[in-house]
């Protein structure tokens, strides 16, 4: 099973991917997270993309697709080792037609396909409010909000104790640019997946827990066998 979470910046993809992945035995493939890790580790890739990233521009497709292919190989290896991996949960990828086509091809080479695309709907004014208050854990990437979802202790990650900070690209200018790119290049992809009957829409303007339940229900509707793919360690049996 391979699921794409689709929605504009601030719609809650990262937040929901972190909750749904473990529940359905899906491995999160979050390209933004992978790029942040590369920048923090100052790898060759990280140094190459830092300026693009900070401005809110897309990283070139070849670099992005290469990174996703590596991640798919890793998922295949874990699956072969019987580690209860049921597939990929894409968050922030694909973001344009080129990437969508490359993903289809990469999955086809593995005799797989996209199972469902979940569109998360949130009004624009709410997106802006969410992005202005977004904070993330420097160490594990957990997502918080100063008002809507604060960590228990100020500035400290609930999950790992890491430092909770504002992202370098969550400036007003970079956010505006990222939303523009989303509506111009990424949203049109929904038609590409709708043609194949893969899209399920979910109201994302509700409490985090309610949105999680709606997404799990939407995926399960699209994939009647979704429950069978739940890993034995996922803790959500029966
Ligand atoms: P947001 O959803 O708030 O834009 P992400 O963490 O998804 O945040 O992405 C942060 C940045 O990482 C993007 O602005 C872009 O520079 C880069 N990035 C992430 N995913 C992709 C992608 N699929 N293609 C190109 N660049 C990407
Ligand atoms: P995306 O990955 O789509 O850009 P995030 O998961 O980073 O979105 O969420 C953006 C911000 O909104 C974060 O600060 C997060 O804590 C907050 N948020 C996410 N989902 C909700 C929700 N259902 N209600 C209120 N705030 C939310
Ligand atoms: Zn953390």
UniProtKB/TrEMBL annotation:
Pfam family, one: ADK
Leader peptide range in chain numbering: none
Keywords annotated in UniProt: ATP-binding, Cytoplasm, Kinase, Metal-binding, Nucleotide biosynthesis, Nucleotide-binding, Transferase, Zinc
Binding site for Zn(2+): 137, 140, 157, 160
Pathway where it operates: Purine metabolism; AMP biosynthesis via salvage pathway; AMP from ADP: step 1/1
Listed EC numbers: 2.7.4.3
GO annotation, biological process: AMP salvage
Binding locations of AMP: 31, 36, 57-59, 92-95, 99, 167, 178
UniProt superkingdom: Bacteria
Reaction(s) catalysed by this chain's protein: AMP + ATP = 2 ADP
Quaternary structure, from the entry: Monomer.
HAMAP family from the UniProt entry: Adenylate_kinase_Adk (MF_00235)
Domain notes: Consists of three domains, a large central CORE domain and two small peripheral domains, NMPbind and LID, which undergo movements during catalysis. The LID domain closes over the site of phosphoryl transfer upon ATP binding. Assembling and dissambling the active center during each catalytic cycle provides an effective means to prevent ATP hydrolysis. Some bacteria have evolved a zinc-coordinating structure that stabilizes the LID domain.
Identification of the protein by name: Adenylate kinase
Taxonomic classification: Bacteria, Pseudomonadati, Thermomicrobiota, Thermomicrobia, Thermomicrobiales
